[in-house]
Amino acid sequence: MDDSSGSTEFSEQTQQLPQMRKEEQYEIHDSAITSDPYETSEVEDQPPDSEWMISIKKKLEQARQDEVDCSRGAVCIYRVPHYLREGDETAYLPQVVSLGPFHHGNERVRQMDRHKWRALHRVLERTKHDIKLYLDAVKELEDRARNCYEGSITLSSNEFVEMMVLDGCFVTELLQGVVQGFRQLGYLPNDPIFAMRGSIHAIQRDMIMLENQLPLCILNRLLELQTGERAEAGFASTLILHFLNPLIHADEPLEETDCEKPESLKPDEMTFDPLSYDGGLHCLHVFRRSLLRRGSEPEHRIWMEKWSDGNSVIKDRRSQQLVHCVTELREAGIKFKKRSTNRFWDITFKNGTLHIPKLLIHNGTKSLFLNLIAFEQCHPDCGNKITSYAVFMDNLINSQQDVAYLHYCGIIEHWLGSDAEVADLFNGLCQEVIFERRYSYLSRLSKKVNRYYNRRWHTWRATLNRKYFSSPWSFISFVAAVIFLLLSFLQTFYGAYSYYNRR
């Protein structure tokens, strides 16, 4: 029964063959011979470009774009690395106003947008300019501005230019208002932003955040349009320093000793003239340069030289140890004295005394130092002086007792709740920071301090001073004890002398 049915099907197929072309018959015959009976139907139905291959090609294309982005040498505004954010993420996020594309449209700071439009409107009303003039000027700088930001910007060309004009005019109004007065710019005395000291202070803190920067070339161009003349080199930098000065100002007049040559940095780092400096990248960079009193020479950092010596950079506290804490140094006889200078980083050591300039600690100090350190960690043409200073102070301060003594010496003044909060602030600045102490500008000074600390004679003398000369009563007790010992010795001597003399 099965054989007859099979022969019937075969005869039906052979009857259909003459109706086909010979080429098609050969194709059917060849495919029947070459086909693999074990091959699955899934492979036959699989398209040439599967979803897997498409995904890989997309990732390679993204890698190509990332390679192009990394090859750009003009990048200077970075996203804070994840390992730095773990300490305090809020220190890197703007709280009042967003500047630039990284936090553009963020719900937290969107309320400031209407005040940005008010500032832009005030600029146009005051200068009698058309908005197209500003849009066209920034359009010419679009590529240069985009290259300043790390990674690709998803905003379209029109959206990016609009954002740059809006944010840039808002910043220029702030900068000019602090110098000239906001009333001179046309703002009312009760303006909710430009007349409120609290709002200005909050904006100052947001303007030194690494992710919240505008390229200095945009600010310079907008200032040129508003003033009607070509801005001289460093004009925007001067306005920025006037605006951001309260963040680090120690409200203390300088003494003549401030003119002494600093031991820790080179002579070309002593002065900073913003009018002669045309290499600024953004507000944070200009502010950092002013803190270090540097000129326009870049601080090149060549990582390959650091890694080629066979010593890896370790992120634990021991590898960052420059000196001992205040309590331990005092036990070795090292003294602390405030140095009268506003260069807070300019620390010296002479004749067993650490001379440290005064530092004012307030609510914005932590965010300021964290963003300066993050910039030094990210930017290749940047040194590590702020990081070195933070690590050095972290070594000095281990407890609130250390803070209390530095406060007693006039070195630290703070507006925080307690000395313990100041200790926690410094101990949390460099927890995840990659730092090599050999490349610190304070490494030579640290060696001097450690050499002095390791001499036992200094420890013995300090112990003697602390026990017997720390107060008048202890000194009187020490002198009385010495006199008592001398009298006892004389009594014993004369007693023995008279005894042997009689014999």
UniProtKB/TrEMBL annotation:
The transmembrane residues are: 473-497
Here the segments flagged for biased composition (Acidic residues) are 39-48
Name of this protein: Uncharacterized protein
Classification of source organism: Eukaryota, Viridiplantae, Streptophyta, Embryophyta, Tracheophyta
Q: Which UniProt keywords apply?
A: Membrane, Transmembrane, Transmembrane helix
Q: Where is this region: Disordered?
A: 1-49
Decide whether keyword Transmembrane is in the record: yes
**Entry's InterPro entries?**
DUF247_pln
